[in-house]
């Protein structure tokens, strides 16, 4: 398909999803063009060199143009450059001459190797997405103004020390970086006196994603373990200081994803992440989590799914909204403190936790009921941010507790409500059901609800 000639005064050119094979030569004369959108133009293979003449161009979207193997030199006012799922192998060094470039999206550019050093010259650069670029082997040198850097699924092995100058960094994504093993740097075998901590200046970092980083060394603990048990015991105070120092550097972190990282021990110093709202440790190998997790007063989500060695949960933070401990087949005990519990809706999942003892279930139930009572008081005070919704609590079990006064075998039960039941003292309904599944592990189904 041939693209027709385009009016010279056009500002926005949207050809996304069309079957055009090339742009007309007159494109280079569109001096007022601000946006060029060629997303999912599968047949277009190359862009005109004259694109560099478009001085007003701000946005270029070539995402999904799977036949494009190279991009010409670009200059001018370009701020947004979307090149995801193209076949490009390199970025021209001229990218360093785009002082206003704010976002560069290279998602799933499978042929792309590494970025030119000129990227570090981009003073306005805030967002870099390299997720799925499987040939990227080194952490790119970027501007100190970078706010979001997603490197999921790349082959990088470590974060360079230069990251300590990225004062504005808010989100760092390293999911499925299976070769990544150093966070933030290795000090094994050195005469350490001062802890190297490239993370310490990242006070703005709010999201850190390290999913499926199998070789991750957490806070130096696994590095010290290499020295042997006796040496490890002798250096324990030092190693704990290291752990505390490095985790304190991330004290403004809101979301931390460490699932499937083969973690053997969760550092005690994780309790210093006072701003943490979501913590996902699912699919790891530790047997317990630190007692001081209770200090995480803002924590709302705790992911422990498929932690097959987990035996003890020592405390439940006061604001917890969702706890996913599904398939923790070794879990036996849960300790909870009702003091300071905040009333809110919740979802606590203990599906397939067959080793969970009765005392642990009673403690969880007491914790849940305390949250419900506190939640009810907030509703009664008519706080605008509090809405009436359901909560859910799930255990592995085969019978309904006796304190449920109306019970029946089957799919329904009938309740005779007393007169004037809907008064100010009415909390709500508590429902419990026992459900049998054909499979051991079922997602999105729960054997009981509260």
Overview in brief:
The protein has helices spanning 221-225, 229-234, 236-248, 358-380; strands at 12-14, 35-37, 59-61, 80-82, 103-105, 127-129, 148-150, 171-173, 182-183, 207-209, 217-218, 255-257, 278-280, 301-303, 312-313, 322-324, 333-334, 347-349, 392-394. The model is unreliable at 184-199, 218-245 and 439-450 (pLDDT under 50).
Verbal overview:
It is built from 4 helices and 19 strands. By secondary structure, the protein is largely without helices or strands. It has 2 domains: 1-156, Ribonuclease Inhibitor (Leucine-rich repeat, LRR (right-handed beta-alpha superhelix)); 285-450, no CATH class. It has a 15-stranded parallel sheet with strand order 1-2-3-4-5-6-7-8-10-12-13-14-16-18-19, with no helix packed on it. It has a two-stranded parallel ribbon with strand order 9-11. The model is unreliable at 184-199, 218-245 and 439-450 (pLDDT under 50). Keywords: Leucine-rich repeat, Repeat. Residues 395-438 form the C-JID domain. This is C-JID domain-containing protein.
């Amino acid at each position: 398909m041939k693209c027709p000639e385009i009016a010279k005064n056009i500002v926005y050119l949207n050809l996304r999803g069309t079957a055009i094979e090339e742009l007309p030569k007159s494109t280079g004369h569109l001096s007022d063009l601000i946006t060029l959108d060629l997303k999912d133009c599968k047949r277009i293979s190359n862009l005109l060199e004259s694109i560099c003449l478009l001085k007003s161009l701000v946005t270029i979207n070539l995402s999904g143009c799977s036949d494009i193997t190279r991009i010409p030199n670009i200059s001018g006012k370009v701020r947004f450059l979307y090149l995801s799922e193209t076949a490009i192998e390199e970025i021209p060094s001229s990218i360093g001459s785009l002082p206003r470039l704010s976002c560069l999206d290279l998602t799933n550019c499978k042929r792309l190797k590494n970025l030119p050093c000129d990227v570090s010259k981009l003073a306005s650069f805030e967002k870099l997405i390299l997720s799925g670029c499987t040939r990227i082997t080194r952490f790119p040198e970027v501007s100190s103004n970078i706010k979001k850097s997603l490197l999921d699924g790349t082959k990088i092995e470590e974060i360079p020390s230069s990251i300590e100058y990225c004062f504005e960094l808010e989100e760092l994504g390293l999911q499925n970086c299976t070769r990544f093993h150093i966070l933030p740097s290795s000090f094994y075998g050195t005469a350490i006196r001062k802890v190297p901590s490239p993370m310490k200046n990242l006070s703005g970092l709010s999201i850190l994603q390290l999913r499926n980083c199998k070789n991750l060394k957490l806070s130096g603990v696994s590095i010290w373990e290499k020295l042997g048990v006796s040496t490890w015991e002798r250096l324990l105070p030092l190693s704990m200081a290291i752990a505390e120092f490095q985790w304190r550097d991330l004290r403004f972190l809101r979301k931390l994803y460490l699932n499937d990282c083969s973690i053997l021990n969760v550092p005690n110093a994780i309790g210093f992440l006072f701003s943490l709202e979501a913590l996902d440790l699912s699919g790891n190998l530790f047997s317990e989590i630190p007692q001081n997790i209770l200090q995480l007063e803002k924590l709302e989500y705790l992911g422990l799914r498929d932690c097959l060695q987990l035996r003890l949960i020592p405390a439940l933070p006061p604001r917890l909204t969702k706890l996913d401990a599904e398939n923790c087949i070794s879990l036996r005990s849960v300790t909870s403190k009702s003091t300071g519990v905040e009333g809110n809706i919740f979802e606590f999942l203990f599906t397939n936790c067959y080793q969970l003892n009765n005392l642990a279930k009673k403690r969880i139930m007491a914790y849940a009921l305390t949250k419900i009572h506190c939640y009810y008081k907030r509703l009664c005070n008519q706080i605008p941010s509090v809405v009436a919704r359901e909560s859910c609590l799930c255990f592995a079990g085969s019978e309904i507790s006796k304190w449920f006064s109306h019970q029946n075998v089957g799919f329904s039960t009938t309740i005779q409500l007393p007169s004037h039941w809907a008064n100010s003292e009415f909390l709500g309904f508590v429902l419990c059901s026992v459900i049998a599944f054909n499979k051991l592990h079922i997602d999105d189904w729960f054997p009981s609800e509260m």
